[in-house]
Amino acid sequence: MSPQPTILIVDDEKHTRDGLRSLLENEYDVYVAADISGAMNVLEREQIDVLFTDLRLGGEDGMT
Question: pLDDT (tens digit, 9 = 90+) per residue, 38-60?
């Protein structure tokens, strides 16, 4: 059996992170982060196939 693809969800709203994780976790290995720092920590240790990010992360920009 091949490993499941991995997804990282980056969003500062907990209900959005939790909702997306709930929808995806049966088919994918899902990681979540509330901010850029948390996302970078995941990206340093895991091979991520797909990244979902909020474009407005509090005071941070989800694209840069």
Answer: 999 999 999 999 999 988 776 66
